[in-house]
Design brief:
Layout (H helix, E strand, L loop, with lengths): L2 H21 L17 E3 L1 H10 L3 E5 L3 H7 L1 E2 L3 E2 L3 E7 L4 E5 L3 H8 L6 E5 L5 H12 L7 E4 L6 E2 L11 E3 L9 E2 L13
Length: 195
C-alpha cells in the first residue's frame, strides 16, 4: 500500500472516531428549556420515547393545534390535547390562537394525576412548558409526574446566519431524532373535531 493511501485511511479513521465520540454525548447541545422556571422536569425526545414505551402509566401529550397535529404529523404514540386552538385567522405576529378552556378537564378525562406521568410536547418546547404549569397549578398534577419535552416535534431553528440551515428547524426534536411519527389519525389518540 502506498504511503499516501495509508495516510488517507488513517485520517478517515481519525475523523470517523471523532464524529462517533462527539455523537456519543447523552444530550445534544441544542436542547434547552424554553421557559425558565416551568413546573416539572425536562426530557429529550429519546428519553420521552423510552419512558412512554417502557411504562404503561407514562404518556406523551401533544399540545399543538389540530392543524399542526394533522398537517405536520405527530408521534405515533402521542395523545392530542391542545392547550390552544387555532382561530383560523392570522394574528399580527404568527397565527391567531385562543386558550383551550377545557384543557385541565381534557387531561383528567384521559389521565389520572395519582398514577399517570405526562410528558408534554409542542412544536419546539414553549407551549409544552405552559402545559406543565397548567397541569401542576390547575389540574393538581404532582410536579414529579410532569415533563416538558425539549425540542418538541420539529426542533429548534438554526440561528447562525452563515449556516445553510439558517432558519430551519433541524436542531433536536422528535422528527430530527428519527423517532416514529405519522400523519394518520388514530381516533383513540386524536382530539375530537369540533362540531
Amino acid at each position: 500500500m502506498k504511503k499516501s493511501n495509508y495516510f488517507c485511511m488513517v485520517v478517515v479513521l481519525i475523523i470517523t472516531a471523532m464524529i462517533t465520540v462527539g455523537c456519543a454525548k447523552k444530550e445534544p447541545l441544542s436542547y434547552s428549556s424554553k421557559t425558565e422556571g416551568h413546573k416539572g422536569g425536562d426530557l429529550t425526545p429519546s428519553q420521552a420515547y423510552q419512558m412512554a414505551t417502557e411504562d404503561e402509566h407514562v404518556f406523551i401529550v401533544d399540545v399543538r393545534t389540530r392543524p399542526e397535529y394533522v398537517l405536520v404529523g405527530h408521534p405515533t404514540i402521542a395523545y392530542h390535547v391542545p392547550i390552544k386552538f387555532w382561530t383560523g385567522k392570522h394574528a399580527t405576529k404568527g397565527y391567531g390562537m385562543v386558550i383551550n378552556e377545557n384543557f385541565t378537564q381534557d387531561l383528567k378525562k384521559h389521565f389520572d394525576p395519582d398514577t399517570d406521568t405526562l410528558i408534554f410536547m409542542c412544536r419546539s418546547g414553549s407551549r409544552s412548558c405552559d402545559a406543565t404549569n397548567v397541569a401542576a397549578s390547575k389540574a393538581s398534577w404532582p410536579t414529579d409526574k410532569i415533563y416538558n419535552m425539549m425540542g418538541g416535534f420539529e426542533g429548534d431553528k438554526v440561528k447562525n446566519e452563515h449556516s445553510v440551515y439558517y432558519g430551519k428547524r433541524v436542531l433536536g426534536g422528535w422528527k430530527n431524532e428519527g423517532l416514529p411519527w405519522t400523519y394518520k389519525l388514530d381516533p383513540n389518540l386524536a382530539y375530537p373535531e369540533a362540531d
